[in-house]
Amino acid sequence: MALLKHLLLSFTIIIISFVACYSTLQEDPPSSIIYIDHSPSIDDGRTFKNLIKQSTNVLSLNRFDKRSSLKKLSVNDYGAKGNGDADDTEAFKKAWDVVCSSGEAILVVPQANYLLKPIRFSGPCEPNVEVQISGTLEASDDPSDYEDDRRHWLVFDNVKKLFVYGGGTIDGNGKIWWKNSCKRNKKRPCKDAPTALTFYNCEDLTVENLSIENAQQIHVSFQDSVNIKVSGLTVTAPEDSPNTDGIHVTNTQNIQISSSVIGTGDDCISIVHGSKDVEATDITCGPGHGISIGSLGSGKSKEFVSGIRVNRAKIFGTKNGVRIKTWQLSRKSAIQIKNVLYQNITGTSASDIAVKFDCSDKFPCEEIVLQNIDLECEGGDDAEAMCNNVELSYLGNVRPRCNSKKRKAFTTITSIWKYFSWYI
């Protein structure tokens, strides 16, 4: 299977309407914007990691005065061994309970290796709670430890004004889960695997300067939360690891993701139903499946995504570039997408078709604008554009362009921007 070789992105995508439709559109959702501006030429993630360290140092200095007045409680003081063999779950629970109930405190994870079973850090908490992870948190690889909740490992639940940071590593230890995935072994049933790190129902959350690796499934998920700042994350897993999305955003509003390097076996960033005002800036993505909105519309559900902005991104070695994925369930129910701007995109494609719009014939894509697009095949030959049921206009220099011939839509994916090797 061909791969995306190199993409230096500078583009804007504006989605004004993005809604699941049933016979007729019943209401107009709020506007949605994806914007990617000019990205510097970066051959690998090292330059971005240096930028991450610099920006993190500045942020840390800004918070120094506040942190100096907070009391520190180490998990070691509550019985954690940190030897990589002993189960430190109960010690972490005890330390969290004290920090959460007292407030004005920092839960400290020193530089050691802590083995943890599934754990939920629940709120509400007293104000000014921080978690400083300097060591490594390693997940239990025994599936029986996840019998009560097969979908989560570390969860922060219902906490306001939480700050999680520290330069440490969260290791999902996912090999046993990947080995038993139906995507690797077709003879096995498809089952959920845990998300390594979940922030659920959180408000005014800051997460920065952490490495998350080898997740059992999704690496980091922000769910049902509001006012989130994420920066300086390094998210990694093998290219063939199944369903290991880097950052997953669902039903979350006002989230900023910046200066992060993501390379996994699935989407670098995935944005799904209910997400609004999502901004991703200075993202290095690859390997993986690119940056995705959706899938949307499964089970005939009405779903909205709006206010998405991607600003400066380098995408390389991925199966997809940037895409919008939807389910088209029948000729009477479909997702409609309209008022979308793709702007300032350059790169090379490992497949002949570099641009693909495959929209519903009943609810076609409308008011799609391409501006300043320059995509060619890997060897320098002209790339092609494939367009079904889409209303297009062009600004500036755009190549490739769709031809005027209409072809019948034939997939369940609608309005897809296809870069490099775009396979669904």
UniProtKB/TrEMBL annotation:
Superkingdom of the organism of origin: Eukaryota
GO MF terms, alphabetically ordered: polygalacturonase activity
One biological process term in Gene Ontology: cell wall organization
Keyword hit for Secreted: yes
Protein localization: Secreted, Cell wall
Family: Belongs to the glycosyl hydrolase 28 family.
Protein name per Swiss-Prot or TrEMBL: Polygalacturonase
Organism in which the protein naturally occurs: Glycine soja (Wild soybean)
The organism's taxonomic lineage, starting at the top: Eukaryota, Viridiplantae, Streptophyta, Embryophyta, Tracheophyta
